[in-house]
Every structure is written in C-alpha cells, then in structure tokens.
Specification:
The complex is a heterodimer of chains A (168) and B (102).
Chain A lengths: L2 H22 L3 H21 L3 H26 L14 H21 L16 H10 L5 H22 L3
Helix pairs in contact in A: 1-2, 2-3
Chain B lengths: L3 H21 L3 H25 L6 H31 L13
Helix pairs in contact in B: 1-2, 2-3
Classes of the chains: A mainly alpha (168), B mainly alpha (102).
Chain lengths: 168, 102
C-alpha cells in the first residue's frame, strides 16, 4: 500500500460519504454544501490521476459557478419546501434498488474486463499534459470542432436561461 | 498498488448515488444536484481511462472538458426552468408539477 493508494482511498471515501449526504440531507442548503465537499473530493482525485488542468477547472467551474448557482436557486425557492415535508417521493425504494443494481452491474462489468490488472503507467518527464491538452483543443486535426460547438452551446444556454427565467 | 478497477468502482458508486438522488428526491434543485453527481462520475471515468491507458493521447481529458461545458449549460437552463416554474406555480416539488401527466 503506497502513499498514493491510501490518498486515493481517503479521498474516495470522503467523496462518497459527502455524495450520499447530498442525496439524503433534508435541509437543501446543507445538501448544497455537501455537494461542494463532493466536488472538492473529485478535484483531489483528478490531482492524484495527474489531470491538473481538470482539477483547477473543477474548482473554478463546478464549485465557483455551478454550486453557487445552485445555492442561489435554493435561496430563491426555499420557503416553499416546508421543513416537515417528505424529501423522497413515494417510489424511493424502487429508486434505491435501481441504484444498487446499477452499482452491482457496473462492478461486475468492470471485473470481467482486465481493469483489475491494469496498473498505473509512468508519465515520462518531458510530457506536459496541460499544454498537450491546450494544443489538442485548438488544433484543426484534433478537437477544434467540438470546442467551437461547446462555445456555441454555452451561448445558446445563456440566451435560453435568460429567456426562460425572465418576468413576463 | 492502485489499479484501474479502483477508479471504475469509485465512479460507479458516485454514479449510482447520483441516480438514486435523481429518481428519489422531490425537490427539483436536488434532482439537478443528482445530475451533477452523475456527470462528475462520468468525468472521473474518462480521466481514469486516460491515465491508465496511454497518457500521451489526450482524448480522455478533451472529452472531460466538453462534459464540463455541457454540465454548465445544463445547470444554467435547468435552474432557469426551476425559477420559472416557481414563479408560475409556487412549488418546485417534482411530483406536484404534473401539468403534462394524464
């Protein structure tokens, strides 16, 4: 058990416990705070897997923008969910069974592949994955078209969100 | 020694928790939080496969960046819908919003 292994296990357990609290906490504001904790745990997993750019983007976009947007929405709509009301709908047992089956099925599938024997390959010293990713995103023979489509999608979502939520 | 299976099981657990949240919670904002958990699980999976196969090929990370953009767009539109529904019907409980259910 190397240091990397124990760090991975610690962050995985923290992330899964906070994710479980996100879906089971009654107070929605506390659930949003647990969501932030979960996103930090996933960012730590990215760092352990050498995806540094994604870890930074996780903190900036997910925690700095998406989680804060969630908290805004909770603040704007909080009074309607009275604290004594149910947090789950009446089908929650089926939902829990479906989640458990999903987990078991995915674990069985991953066991059948060679994934349990795939160990971590070394990253050579001169490979800079951040600049590789940056070049791949704007290079014409790599991913420039998905990159531009994503920017158009973001613009469309911006206009759509303003249109849907404006007062009329 | 850490193997690819650890990452896959972690992301499967995160995805299943998110799936349960989406299917079981009543509050529409909580459902969006479950969707965020599921998108994060997908990203962990992509990064895991990138790291454990050939790190010189950057495809996995590029896909994860696109998933980030789509997640941001999705949550913006989703929360706009929630606010709009709240304005019109004074509720955001998903099982009270049954206008299109016959």
């Amino acid at each position: 058990m190397t240091g990397m292994d124990s760090l991975f296990l610690i962050f995985a357990v923290i992330t899964l416990i906070s994710a479980f609290l996100v879906v089971t906490t009654k107070n929605l504001f506390h659930a949003a705070l647990w969501l932030i904790m979960t996103l930090f745990g996933v960012a730590a997993i990215y760092v352990l897997l050498n995806a540094f750019y994604l870890a930074v983007i996780q903190v900036i976009v997910y925690i700095g923008a998406i989680a804060i947007l969630m908290i805004f929405a909770i603040m704007l709509t909080q009074r309607v969910m009275n604290p004594s009301g149910r947090i789950f709908n009446k089908n929650w047992i089926i939902a829990a069974l479906l989640g458990a089956f999903m987990f078991i099925g995915l674990v069985i599938i991953s066991m059948q592949t060679g994934a349990s024997k795939t160990t971590l390959p070394q990253i050579s010293g001169q490979l800079d994955t951040v600049s590789e990713l940056g070049q791949a995103l704007v290079s014409p023979n790599a991913y420039v078209i998905p990159f531009e489509v994503a920017s158009v999608l973001l613009l469309a979502a911006l206009i759509g969100a303003i249109f849907v939520s404006r007062k009329r | 020694m850490i193997t690819l299976n650890w990452v896959l099981i972690f992301s499967a657990a995160l995805f299943s928790i998110g799936l349960f949240g989406v299917l079981a919670r009543r509050n529409a904002v909580a459902i969006l939080m479950g969707i965020e958990l599921m998108l994060n699980a997908v990203n962990v999976n992509l990064v895991g496969f990138w790291r454990f196969s050939n790190p010189a090929v950057i495809t996995g990370q590029a896909f994860a960046v696109i998933v980030f953009a789509v997640a941001a767009a999705e949550v913006a539109v989703g929360l706009a819908l929630v606010i709009s529904i709240y304005r019109r019907r004074k509720t955001i409980a998903a099982d009270d919003i049954d206008l299109m259910k016959w």
